[in-house]
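REVIEWER CHECKLIST
Item 1: Sequence provided? yes
Item 2: Single chain? yes
Item 3: Sequence as submitted:
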Amino acid sequence: MSELATLARPYATAVFKRAKETGTTSQWSDTLGFLAAVLSDSQIEQAAENPVSSKEKFTSALLDLCSGKIIDGEGENFVRLLIANKRLGLTKLISEQFEQLRADEEGYIVADVHTAYPLDDAEINQLTTLLQQTLGKQPRLHVQVDETLIGGVLIKAGDRVIDASVRGQIQRLAKRLYN
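Item 4: Structure as written out by the authors:
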């Protein structure tokens, strides 16, 4: 995994620099997210990895699929570059690294919040305030309900994990009992 992240980094950095130059970071964010979603489809992934199909036909088909969507001329050139360098499989990692560069530049942090039950607006505001104090950056929350947590929350923000879930507490208790 770390090798793939290393391979994706120059692409993410180059796209981010270009996006800053042209003032299109939001557009590039949408483009990379869209490409990552399209390429996560198993049939498209198989077509991309098929050694029998020609690069030109696949490139044409992929760009036809994406035409009229979020991808502009620079995005099309980026797709062609990834296909030519056999790096199309790195699109998801490139998108993730781009988002991290964008978050660092704009001074926010993306926090994935997994809760046992849906949060209301007051709880989201309280959690946002608490995370801002803890992390020192404005958090952008992506809240998901995960019923396996039993209760509480599990927060992943950057390289930090805050496990305040009942499931996590039970796992820590079990570990202490067995050791």
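Item 5: Key structural point noted by reviewer: The beta strands are 108-115, 138-145, 152-157, 160-165.
Item 6: Recommendation: ____
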